[in-house]
Amino acid sequence: MTYQGSCHCGRIAFEVDGEINGAMACNCSICARKGSLMWFVPRDSLRLRTPPEDMATYLFNKHVIRHHFCPTCGIHPFGEGTDPKGNRMAAVNIRCLEGVALESVPVQHFDGLSK
Questions:
Q1: Residue boundaries of the structural domains of the chain
Q2: Could you give the CA distance from residue 45 to residue 76 in angstroms, rounded to a whole number?
Q3: Residue 55: which H helix or E strand, with range?
Q4: What is the chain's pLDDT, residue by residue, as a tens digit (115 residues)?
Q5: How many beta carbons lie within 10 A of that of residue 70, not counting itself?
Q6: pLDDT value of residue 58
Q7: Beta 38-42 vs 46-48: how paired, if at all?
Q8: Cα atoms found within 13 Å of the Cα of residue 88, Cβ hemisphere only
Q9: Of 36, 70, 65, 38, the residue nearest 51 (C-alpha)
Q10: For residues 38 and 108, is the Cβ–Cβ distance under 8 A?
Q11: Cβ(47)–Cβ(59) under 8 Å?
Q12: CATH class of segment(s) 2-110
């Protein structure tokens, strides 16, 4: 299935292919503040529909995850990094996807605060 996603103002728009079987909520210092529900997909499954220069990026801690956000509305639609095997991944905030019934998505809680 292909999902359409964006930040609040639409400056960052994208589409992503895959099946949402679950999402992750993390309690680390950044995720707890953002409130994202992350769905991990191969980076090649996500296609930007707007120029990449319209995004701002935040790095912290080990600087391995690029947390992308909109400099206009402040919403964080997705991040990028690599998994432990070295595969390029995207962490899509399912709250930014159109037509997803959030209450039907199982959420796994991850203790990023202690990692």
A1: 2-110
A2: 18
A3: none
A4: 999 999 999 999 999 999 999 999 999 888 899 999 999 999 999 999 999 999 999 998 778 889 999 999 999 999 999 988 999 999 999 999 999 999 999 999 999 888 7
A5: 21
A6: 95
A7: unpaired
A8: 5
A9: 70
A10: no
A11: no
A12: mainly beta
Distances (CA, A) of 68 to 21, 74, 112, 114: 23, 10, 19, 23
| Contact between 110 and 36 (Cβ < 8 Å) | no
Query: Any long-range contacts for 63-66 (C-beta under 8 Å, 24+ apart)?
Result: 65/91
78 — phi, psi (to 5°)? -165, 165
> Which amino acid belongs to residue 101?
A
| Strand, coil or helix: 60 | coil
What is residue 62's predicted lDDT score, i.e. its pLDDT? 78
- Tell me the whole-structure pTM to 2 decimals: 0.93
